[in-house]
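quick one: adenosine-5'-diphosphate bound model?
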Amino acid sequence: MPLNRRIVIYPGSFDPVTNGHLDIVQRACRLFDHVVVAISHNPLKSPLFSLEERRELLELALKPLIRRKKVSVDVFDGLLVQYARRRGAGAIVRGLRAVSDFEYEFQMALMNRHQTPEVETVFLMPDEKYTYLSSTLLKEIVRMGGEIGRFIPPALIPKIRQKLTAHRFHNNA
Ligand code: ADP
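yep, here:
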Protein backbone atom coordinates (compact mmCIF):
# COMPACT_ATOMS: atom_id res chain seq x y z
CA MET A 1 0.00 0.00 0.00
CA PRO A 2 1.47 3.46 -0.86
CA LEU A 3 2.17 5.53 2.23
CA ASN A 4 -0.11 8.48 2.74
CA ARG A 5 1.76 11.63 3.71
CA ARG A 6 -1.40 12.99 5.23
CA ILE A 7 -1.90 10.23 7.82
CA VAL A 8 0.20 10.28 10.98
CA ILE A 9 0.53 7.75 13.79
CA TYR A 10 0.84 9.06 17.36
CA PRO A 11 2.06 6.05 19.37
CA GLY A 12 2.40 5.80 23.14
CA SER A 13 1.45 4.08 26.35
CA PHE A 14 -1.21 6.66 27.29
CA ASP A 15 -1.35 5.21 30.82
CA PRO A 16 -3.49 7.33 31.13
CA VAL A 17 -3.91 10.09 28.54
CA THR A 18 -3.11 13.60 29.83
CA ASN A 19 -3.66 17.14 28.54
CA GLY A 20 -0.04 16.99 27.31
CA HIS A 21 -0.91 14.12 24.93
CA LEU A 22 -4.09 15.91 23.85
CA ASP A 23 -2.12 19.08 23.12
CA ILE A 24 0.12 17.07 20.75
CA VAL A 25 -2.91 15.45 19.04
CA GLN A 26 -4.43 18.89 18.43
CA ARG A 27 -1.20 20.23 16.95
CA ALA A 28 -0.85 17.12 14.75
CA CYS A 29 -4.43 17.62 13.50
CA ARG A 30 -3.40 21.03 12.14
CA LEU A 31 -0.58 19.47 10.13
CA PHE A 32 -2.13 16.19 8.98
CA ASP A 33 -5.52 15.14 7.65
CA HIS A 34 -5.85 12.22 10.06
CA VAL A 35 -4.16 11.25 13.32
CA VAL A 36 -4.18 7.63 14.49
CA VAL A 37 -3.59 7.57 18.24
CA ALA A 38 -2.03 4.12 18.66
CA ILE A 39 -1.82 2.56 22.11
CA SER A 40 1.18 0.29 22.34
CA HIS A 41 0.56 -3.16 23.73
CA ASN A 42 3.74 -3.47 25.71
CA PRO A 43 3.22 -5.63 28.81
CA LEU A 44 6.89 -5.10 29.77
CA LYS A 45 5.97 -1.56 30.81
CA SER A 46 3.37 -2.97 33.28
CA PRO A 47 0.76 -0.31 32.62
CA LEU A 48 -1.76 0.41 35.37
CA PHE A 49 -4.70 0.86 33.00
CA SER A 50 -5.70 -2.03 30.72
CA LEU A 51 -5.65 -1.52 26.96
CA GLU A 52 -9.44 -1.26 26.94
CA GLU A 53 -9.43 1.31 29.76
CA ARG A 54 -6.77 3.39 28.00
CA ARG A 55 -8.73 3.24 24.77
CA GLU A 56 -11.95 4.23 26.55
CA LEU A 57 -10.27 7.26 28.20
CA LEU A 58 -8.72 8.39 24.90
CA GLU A 59 -12.03 8.01 23.06
CA LEU A 60 -13.80 10.04 25.73
CA ALA A 61 -11.15 12.79 25.63
CA LEU A 62 -11.06 12.90 21.82
CA LYS A 63 -14.78 12.47 21.12
CA PRO A 64 -15.28 15.68 19.02
CA LEU A 65 -12.20 14.98 16.86
CA ILE A 66 -13.21 11.32 16.39
CA ARG A 67 -16.69 12.41 15.34
CA ARG A 68 -15.14 14.75 12.72
CA LYS A 69 -13.02 11.81 11.53
CA LYS A 70 -9.82 13.78 12.26
CA VAL A 71 -8.69 11.21 14.82
CA SER A 72 -9.07 7.49 15.46
CA VAL A 73 -7.84 5.38 18.36
CA ASP A 74 -6.26 1.97 17.83
CA VAL A 75 -4.07 -0.57 19.63
CA PHE A 76 -0.92 -2.02 18.12
CA ASP A 77 1.43 -4.83 18.92
CA GLY A 78 4.95 -5.39 17.57
CA LEU A 79 7.11 -3.00 15.61
CA LEU A 80 5.80 0.53 15.24
CA VAL A 81 7.15 1.01 11.70
CA GLN A 82 5.43 -2.18 10.54
CA TYR A 83 2.21 -0.95 12.08
CA ALA A 84 2.64 2.45 10.34
CA ARG A 85 3.11 0.63 7.03
CA ARG A 86 0.02 -1.51 7.62
CA ARG A 87 -1.99 1.64 8.28
CA GLY A 88 -0.51 3.31 5.21
CA ALA A 89 0.82 6.19 7.34
CA GLY A 90 3.74 8.26 6.07
CA ALA A 91 4.69 9.72 9.44
CA ILE A 92 4.97 9.17 13.17
CA VAL A 93 4.52 12.01 15.64
CA ARG A 94 6.07 12.16 19.10
CA GLY A 95 5.95 14.84 21.78
CA LEU A 96 9.12 16.47 23.10
CA ARG A 97 8.77 18.00 26.53
CA ALA A 98 12.34 18.63 27.58
CA VAL A 99 15.91 17.81 26.75
CA SER A 100 15.52 14.70 28.89
CA ASP A 101 13.10 13.25 26.31
CA PHE A 102 15.50 13.95 23.49
CA GLU A 103 18.05 11.17 23.72
CA TYR A 104 15.56 8.32 23.85
CA GLU A 105 13.33 9.84 21.17
CA PHE A 106 16.27 10.57 18.87
CA GLN A 107 17.55 7.00 19.19
CA MET A 108 14.12 5.55 18.51
CA ALA A 109 13.45 7.83 15.52
CA LEU A 110 16.78 6.89 13.92
CA MET A 111 16.19 3.20 14.55
CA ASN A 112 12.75 3.48 12.97
CA ARG A 113 14.22 5.35 10.00
CA HIS A 114 16.83 2.66 9.60
CA GLN A 115 14.11 0.03 9.34
CA THR A 116 11.62 2.02 7.26
CA PRO A 117 13.17 5.11 5.65
CA GLU A 118 9.91 6.14 3.98
CA VAL A 119 8.19 6.75 7.34
CA GLU A 120 9.27 10.13 8.73
CA THR A 121 9.24 11.00 12.46
CA VAL A 122 7.99 14.44 13.42
CA PHE A 123 8.47 16.00 16.87
CA LEU A 124 6.06 18.50 18.30
CA MET A 125 6.38 20.57 21.48
CA PRO A 126 3.39 21.00 23.75
CA ASP A 127 2.31 24.24 25.38
CA GLU A 128 4.83 25.17 28.07
CA LYS A 129 2.30 24.46 30.79
CA TYR A 130 2.43 20.75 29.92
CA THR A 131 6.18 20.37 29.65
CA TYR A 132 6.47 18.95 33.17
CA LEU A 133 3.40 16.70 32.87
CA SER A 134 3.62 12.93 32.49
CA SER A 135 1.21 10.03 33.05
CA THR A 136 3.50 8.80 35.84
CA LEU A 137 3.39 12.13 37.67
CA LEU A 138 -0.36 12.36 37.21
CA LYS A 139 -0.84 8.95 38.87
CA GLU A 140 1.44 10.01 41.74
CA ILE A 141 -0.58 13.18 42.33
CA VAL A 142 -3.85 11.22 42.41
CA ARG A 143 -2.36 8.69 44.82
CA MET A 144 -1.30 11.53 47.14
CA GLY A 145 -4.78 13.04 46.98
CA GLY A 146 -3.66 16.08 44.93
CA GLU A 147 -5.57 18.25 42.49
CA ILE A 148 -5.50 17.08 38.82
CA GLY A 149 -8.10 19.33 37.19
CA ARG A 150 -5.49 21.13 35.09
CA PHE A 151 -3.89 17.97 33.78
CA ILE A 152 -6.73 15.92 32.30
CA PRO A 153 -10.17 16.68 30.84
CA PRO A 154 -12.79 16.94 33.64
CA ALA A 155 -14.85 14.03 32.22
CA LEU A 156 -11.96 11.64 32.85
CA ILE A 157 -11.26 12.58 36.47
CA PRO A 158 -13.80 10.23 38.17
CA LYS A 159 -12.63 7.22 36.13
CA ILE A 160 -8.97 7.86 36.90
CA ARG A 161 -9.59 8.45 40.60
CA GLN A 162 -11.75 5.33 40.81
CA LYS A 163 -9.08 3.17 39.18
CA LEU A 164 -6.29 4.44 41.41
CA THR A 165 -8.38 4.07 44.57
CA ALA A 166 -9.32 0.50 43.59
CA HIS A 167 -5.69 -0.26 42.82
CA ARG A 168 -4.50 1.12 46.18
CA PHE A 169 -7.23 -0.78 48.03
CA HIS A 170 -6.34 -3.98 46.18
CA ASN A 171 -2.64 -3.56 46.96
CA ASN A 172 -3.26 -2.86 50.65
CA ALA A 173 -5.75 -5.71 51.07
P1 ADP B 1 5.73 6.09 25.70
O1 ADP B 1 5.77 4.99 26.70
O2 ADP B 1 5.69 5.60 24.29
O3 ADP B 1 6.73 7.21 25.89
P2 ADP B 1 3.77 7.99 26.68
O4 ADP B 1 2.28 7.83 26.78
O5 ADP B 1 4.52 8.25 27.94
O6 ADP B 1 4.28 6.71 25.92
O7 ADP B 1 4.11 9.16 25.68
C1 ADP B 1 3.69 9.10 24.34
C2 ADP B 1 4.25 10.32 23.61
O8 ADP B 1 3.65 11.49 24.15
C3 ADP B 1 5.75 10.51 23.76
O9 ADP B 1 6.25 11.06 22.56
C4 ADP B 1 5.87 11.52 24.88
O10 ADP B 1 7.06 12.29 24.77
C5 ADP B 1 4.65 12.37 24.61
N1 ADP B 1 4.17 13.03 25.82
C6 ADP B 1 3.88 12.49 27.02
N2 ADP B 1 3.49 13.45 27.89
C7 ADP B 1 3.54 14.62 27.21
C8 ADP B 1 3.32 15.98 27.57
N3 ADP B 1 2.98 16.35 28.79
N4 ADP B 1 3.48 16.90 26.61
C9 ADP B 1 3.88 16.54 25.37
N5 ADP B 1 4.13 15.30 24.97
C10 ADP B 1 3.97 14.35 25.88
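The pocket of adenosine-5'-diphosphate is lined by residues 12-14, 18, 20-21, 24, 94-95, 97, 101, 126, 130, 133-135 (CB under 6 Å).
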